Amino acid sequence: MSLKDNKYFSLDRILLVLIVVLGCSSGMVALVSMPNEFNTPPSRLSFPEPLQKIKGYNVPTKQLAVTQEQKQEVEEYTVEEVPVETQSEVIENVPLGSLLPCSCCKKTIRVPRNPYTSHQKAARSLPNSFFIKNESDIRYGLGVEKLVEVKDGRGYRIDRLKHSKAMLLPEVKALLEEMGNDYADALEGTDSEGTVFRVTSLTRTDEQQRKLARRNRNATRGASTHSYGASFDIAFMDRPNEKANCNRPTREIQKLLVRYQKEGRILIIPEGGCMHITLIR
């Protein structure tokens, strides 16, 4: 090796040593200047305070919305809490009107038709009968007890009325209650027990009748027997459970109507959507 090569070799070694020394010095300076809080590990982890403890924050109390399917799942579990002897009733019985009803009209029931003029004559001849023109006549009828309020009863229920009032002449209400009892008796002990017929129209003022006649071609434009408190309409039969089909409820309501008609107690007009019934004196 020449003197010149030996000189360059010595310089390289000197530079390498200097680089190593400078690097070590920088590392020591960084370690000495590091804050003390990073040298010691934390004693424990911290957690956020519950929302209830934060001053000025009110935790919402509304329940989350649930779908109908989720609601049904919850209700299925609650059946287990009902005593075993009553579970079958909870499962089978359903609110009236939640199942498809059986129709009560001229398409499903064969009943002889009485002329409407006979209905009008019968309505006018009832003891407490009077023509109800407006709301003032309604208040008068209730005040002198020529009209009485009608509510759900055994064998029948009153529909949500839009074009009439839930009231009748006292003798017509008695007829409705008797028909309801006879219908319930006919279905007692069968799969259709608990089925009721639905009354869809009762007393109607002449003002209501005229408004209805503009929209419904079946509604008479003359003096309606509904405006005497003498008539009511039956449109459906509501079943209490799915075991009861429409065969027996339809057959029994037909037998009931024909029997009352033959006995000379009622007049009937079978319509496209209901059975119109008027009491005979």
Which features characterize this protein?
281 residues, alpha+beta, Muramoyl-pentapeptide Carboxypeptidase, domain 2, 2 domains, two-stranded antiparallel sheet, 8 helices, 8 strands, elongated
Strand count, sense and barrel status of the largest sheet are: 6 strands, mixed
So what's the CATH class of the largest domain? Alpha Beta
Rg calculated over all Cα atoms: 43 Å
Helix percent reads 40-55%
The residue-averaged pLDDT reads 78
Share of residues in strands: 5-15%
Low-pLDDT regions: 29-33, 41-91
Give the name of the CATH architecture of the largest domain: 2-Layer Sandwich
Distance between the termini: 146 Å
Write the topology of this structure.
Blueprint: H1 3-33, H2 68-78, H3 84-92, E1 102-103, H4 116-124, H5 135-143, E2 148-149, E3 156-158, E4 167-168, H6 170-187, E5 196-201, H7 206-215, E6 231-238, H8 247-262, E7 266-270, E8 275-279
Parallel strand pairs: 3-5
Antiparallel strand pairs: 1-6, 2-4, 5-6, 6-8, 7-8
Helix pairs in contact: 6-8
Please explain how this structure is put together:
The chain has 281 residues and is α+β, with helices and mostly antiparallel strands. The chain has 2 domains: 65-93, no CATH class; 102-279, Muramoyl-pentapeptide Carboxypeptidase, domain 2, CATH 3.30.1380. The chain is built from 8 helices and 8 strands; from the N terminus they run H-H-H-E-H-H-E-E-E-H-E-H-E-H-E-E. Strands 1, 3, 5, 6, 7 and 8 form a 6-stranded mixed beta sheet that branches. It has a two-stranded antiparallel ribbon with strand order 2-4. The protein is elongated and about 140 Å long. The chain starts with a helix and ends with a strand. Mean pLDDT is 78; it is low at 29-33 and 41-91.
